[in-house]
Amino acid sequence: MTISYLDLDPDQRAGLDSLPFDGNHLVGGPPGSGKSVLAAQRAAMLALTGTPVVLLTYSNLLRQSLAGTVHALGPADRSVRVMTAHRWLAEWYGATPPGSGDGWYDWDALHNRAAETAPTVGPTLVIDEGQDLPPEFYLLCRMLGARTTVFADQCQRLTDTNSTLDEIVRNLGRCTRHELDGNHRNTEQIASLAAHFHTGADVPILPARQGPVPRLHRFHERGVADLLVLLAEAQPKKSIGVIAATKHTQFSLLGSIQNRAPRLKPQLYTSESKGGQYRNLDLGWPGIVIVHRRSAKGLSFDTVVIPDTHWDAGTDPTSATLRMSYYVMATRARQELHLGHEGQSEPPLLAQINRMDLQRG
Known about the structure:
alpha/beta, six-stranded parallel sheet, nucleotide-binding, DNA helicase, hydrolase, ATP-binding, Rossmann fold
C-alpha cells in the first residue's frame, strides 16, 4: 500500500514524520492547524506497519468527511476503517452495551469486559477531535493495550462529557504530548473575529492569508435564503456551510432554497435521521450544506453562514459554553464568514465586537 501527502506544508509533514509508530501520543493544536487531515495521514501511515487501524470520531458527519480523506490517501484494502466511537465500542463489545443516560455507554460494564477479554495485542487507534470523548474512553484504551494517537483541542469542546488534554494523557498512561502551531484554514480576518470568542489563556496567532471581513446581516423573512442563493450562484465551485441552531431552521432553509433555486441541490444533515438523504452526504461536491451546530466540529467550508444568532440573545455573553460554540462555528470558514440575526437588536455577544472585525449590513 502506498499513500500520498495531502494539503500539508513542510512543518506539518515534518511533525507527522517525527511521531514514533509505537506508543501513545496526544497532538494538540488550534483550529486550522490541520488536525483532521493529519489524523487521516497518521492512520494511513500506521497501516503501513501491517496492523489494521481504526480512525475514530465523535461526530458521524466528521466520520464521513474523514472517510473521504482516507479514500483519497489510497489505502483501498480497508486497512484503515473510519468509524464513530459509539459504533466501534458496540462492535468491540459484541452487542449494544448498556446505556448510562448521558449519551454514552455504561463504562463500568465496558471496563469489566476489557478486564476479562483484553487481547494480547491491542488495537491501533487514531482519534480526531479527541476532546469530545469522555475520560473513561481513554482508560478503556489503556486497559485494551491500544496503540493510540489522539488529535485534540481543549478550546473546541463539543460535549458535556468531554476530556481535558491532561485527562487524556493521564488515562492513556504513558503518552507523549506534541503541539501543532499555525492556522492553515482561516484568513486573518476570520481568525481575528474568532479570537473574540476564544476561551483559552493563549490566543492563537493570526494567519497571514487575507480575505473579506466577516459580516453581520439583519435578516427579514426569507432573507437568509436570498443570501444563500446569491452566494451559491456567484461561487458555483465553492462549498457553503450553513450552521443552524435548530432543526426547524435547517428544514425551513432547505425548503426555501429548493423552492426558489432547485438547481442548487442543497444538502442537509441531521444526526436524528436513521439513514438516507439526511444522514449520508456527499461532502466532496461544492454547494450548500445545512448542518446543526452540534455537527459542525471538524468540518470546513469555503464560506460559512451562521443564520440565527438571535437564538442566543438571552444567553449571558460571558458564558464559556456560548463563546466556545461561536469559536468552533467561526473557525469552520476558509474564506468568507457571514452571521445573521432577526430583529432590531444585535445579540449581546456580537454587539460588543468592533466594526473592524465584524462589518454590519
